[in-house]
Structure prediction request, 225 residues.
Amino acid sequence: MGVSIFMLFFVILIIGLLAFVLVAKGRTTRYSEAGTGPDERTIAEFGSPVRSLYTSTAFLSLRHHIIITDAAGVPVYESSSKVFSFRDRTDVMRADGTHVAHIERKVFTLHQRHYVTMEDGTAFELWSELFHIIKDIINIDGLGWQIEGNILQMNFLIKDRNGNAVAYIGQKLFSIHDRYSVDIYQPQYEEAVVAILVCLQHMVRDREASSSAAYSSSSSSSASN
Prediction:
């Protein structure tokens, strides 16, 4: 009887926390749909971007296929991951099929490291700093950039080594296609931003999968007791 009451309390607590998270995300995410223009808060903070792009992940795709379009909905880039790749090997291409970047995830690391090699030979590495409760910090070694974000708020700012905005990323709430918008402020780095955007989507997806697995394991352990 005591265990049942505890489980009921636990379920109510989890539902309450999920409701709080969803409300918080809905109020703070700066995702914008193609054709609607950037979020007003982003414009107020950083000015009007030079260009905006939008991503959509193919639903039920084994290859984790991401399509990236412009404001008119025209495909500009796409990424595709190898099926059952332990290192999450991913290639980013332009719409005409020419290669842009290759991405690989480092295995056995707490920092969610991803290595990116651009077609022109530029190489950089993304890795998450640990122990940040409120704000996520992702360093981009090789470029001297940083991503500041918050998975709760679903917003991410890419900053250059001088602290200037390179791009601002927003994730859509409630989307089976895992949609993101990215407002680009330094267009000379557009392809690097696209590669970083693809990395970020993979990092968020992996973190959500880890959290889900940990929650399932905890629930199973509680039920068995």
